[in-house]
Amino acid sequence: MFKEFETQKFYYGFPIFLIGYEDDRYQYNVTTCSSSYTLGDMVVIGLAAQSNAVKQIEKFKHFSINLLSSEHMDLVEKAGFNPAKDKLNLYDIAYEFFKDSRVPLISKATISLIVNVEKIDYQGDYVNITGKINHRLFNHELLEHPTFIREKFEPFLYVGDDKKRVYRFVNKIVIDGGSFFE
Ligand SMILES: Cc1cc2nc3c(=O)[nH]c(=O)nc-3n(C[C@H](O)[C@H](O)[C@H](O)COP(=O)(O)O)c2cc1C
Question: What is the pTM (predicted TM-score) of this model?
Answer without folding.
Answer: 0.97
